[in-house]
Specification:
By secondary structure, the chain is α+β, with helices and mostly antiparallel strands.
Length: 204
């Protein structure tokens, strides 16, 4: 049996049960406050204002819980254990019938989704490979795995779970056929990157 090497893989990290039930509930209360803004594409998706991660005890606890996982995930991205910080966060409320179009996150290197409710299987997060022109044009029309498929769907996710992924990775949510879906999203950056001695530092 030959050894398969995952050449140039795209890392995605899932952390089960990152936060406790009481912290999930505290975030839910904030997410469902009436001052949310509707998404520009649909009234069935709304967002809180951008959150300063240092503004309350809930976000302080979240930052503390996320920190070691960000460091480990960042080592996969940049081959070095760097100091990471959440630069911004916000919460999303997706009603029955709503969806989120495919998108990426700018001005960051790692992004995260903290699930505050257990989503209906119809509304699991979907990731899509960005077309780069380096693939077979004629494809095999059978169920594909994560090596050969253009899309990948996160399954078996529960309230309190965390998902980390590179900010450039396309992702979205199909139409929600279940109950209200609530998540907390964030973007993170390392303290610096070093490209052959040319260092760029990021301040928060």
């Amino acid at each position: 049996m030959g050894k398969v090497i995952g050449l140039f893989p795209t890392p995605v990290m899932k952390v089960d049960g990152l936060i406790s039930t009481d912290l999930v509930q505290a975030f839910l209360e904030k997410a469902l406050a009436p001052d949310r803004q509707s998404n520009s594409a649909t009234d069935l998706l709304s967002h809180t204002q951008m959150i300063d991660p240092g503004e309350s005890w809930e976000y302080a606890r979240l930052s503390e819980a996320v920190a070691p996982h960000l460091v480990a995930f960042g080592e996969l991205l940049f081959a070095e254990r760097l100091n990471w910080a959440i630069k911004e966060a916000w919460m999303n409320v997706l009603e029955t019938g709503g969806s989120q179009f495919m998108h990426t996150h700018a001005n960051s290197f790692a992004s995260g989704i903290l699930y505050l409710t257990t989503p209906d299987p119809s509304a699991n997060t979907v990731f899509r490979k960005t077309g780069g022109g380096g693939e077979f044009i004629f494809k095999n029309d059978v169920p594909l795995d994560h090596y050969s498929s253009d899309t990948w769907v996160l399954t078996d996710v529960q309230a309190g779970d965390l998902l980390l992924y590179p900010s450039y990775l396309m992702h979205g949510v199909p139409p929600n056929e279940g109950e209200r879906r609530v998540t907390l999203a964030f973007n993170a950056i390392p303290h610096q990157l070093d490209s052959l001695g040319y260092k760029i530092r990021f301040g928060l």
